[in-house]
Design a protein that fits this description.
The chain is mainly beta. It has a domain of 35 residues. Helix content is 0%, strand content 18%. It has no helices and 4 strands. Strand 1 and strand 2 form a beta hairpin. The two termini are 22 Å apart. The relative contact order is 0.18.
């Protein structure tokens, strides 16, 4: 369920005004940044060395595992 009210999105934050107290509702929601991972080398999905943020796949950039 999307919170009612007016939303404003910045580069690293967001604000929702004119809505009910979100701590007393059963609404589940998240805000996140879209990230694209590329295969860096053959390996286990759950190993961070398998993935890179480099679109060419030639440089090891980042240390996260896709969720």
């Amino acid at each position: 369920m999307t919170p009612a009210g007016t939303s404003s999105f910045g580069a690293n934050s967001f604000t929702i005004t004119g809505t009910t107290n979100m701590t007393s509702t059963s609404t589940d929601w998240t805000a996140g940044k879209l990230v694209t991972y590329y295969s860096y080398q053959t390996g286990d999905w759950n190993t961070n060395n398998t993935w890179t943020l480099d679109p060419s796949g030639t440089l090891q950039i980042g240390s996260n595992i896709p969720e």
